[in-house]
Specification:
By secondary structure, this protein is mainly alpha-helical. The chain has two domains: 64 residues, Arc Repressor Mutant, subunit A (Orthogonal Bundle), CATH 1.10.10.60; 128 residues, Tetracycline Repressor, domain 2. 79% of the residues lie in helices and 0% in strands. Helix 1 crosses helix 4 and helix 5 packs antiparallel against helix 9. It is elongated and about 65 Å long.
């Protein structure tokens, strides 16, 4: 009995994920305004009633897409070098390298993120999810900076909160620019330059 229950739960989760991924790609192609429940159901090979079993409204489906996107941002990362020293400064550099990796291999993530930012202005639920995501990101960066100061790889005189805002602003701007103009050698050079400048800013004493 337990085995059948586990299989049913797994099947339900698989269907849930499938519907979210379809909606995600519909948003990439058509934007939030072009997202239609019936189109998602048709591409999944189910009827509208089945889709509504998993997502009662279009809004709950969109919230599922938000959760999926945020999970992708935390898991889809460039492979680390096994022989590289593990410290906070290298971890911060990899924040930029992770963005470069995503921009090249999965640019649709930033298209959906841009759509989310627009939608959040009139959707309190999405706005709150975006806010919590940014708070989590800033908390992670704060931890890295404080660890780096303790490790002696980041200067003690740094303004931690201002540096968090600076890093987040730089990376957000790169993401939005890629949506508008696409990835290019020029944008790749900008990321490389930002890595150098950020490391210099974090380590050079005034």
């Amino acid at each position: 009995m337990r085995k059948h229950a586990d299989e049913a739960s797994s099947t339900k989760q698989d269907r849930h994920t499938e519907l979210v991924k379809i909606a995600y790609h519909e948003i990439v192609e058509k934007g939030f305004e072009g997202l239609r429940i019936r189109d998602v159901a048709a591409k999944a090979g189910v009827n509208n009633a089945t889709l509504h079993y998993y997502f009662r409204t279009k809004e709950t489906l969109i919230h599922g897409v938000v959760q999926y996107l945020m999970q992708e941002f935390t898991t889809q990362r460039i492979p680390r070098e096994n022989n590289e020293e593990s410290n906070a400064l290298n971890a911060i550099r990899y924040e930029f390298e992770d963005m470069r990796f995503r921009l090249k291999s999965m640019p649709e993530m930033f298209t959906v993120l841009a759509e989310l930012s627009l939608r959040s202005r009139r959707d309190a639920g999405i706005a709150e999810m975006m806010k919590q995501t940014k708070l989590g990101w800033s908390h992670y960066l704060r931890g890295l900076l404080m660890d780096g100061i303790e490790q002696g790889v980041i200067r003690k005189s740094i303004d931690v909160e201002a540096t968090i805002d600076l890093i987040m602003l730089q990376m957000s701007a790169i993401g939005y620019q890629s949506v508008e103009l696409g990835y290019s050698d020029g944008l790749d050079r900008i990321i490389s330059l930002l890595i150098v400048q950020t490391e210099r800013f974090l380590t050079d004493e005034d």
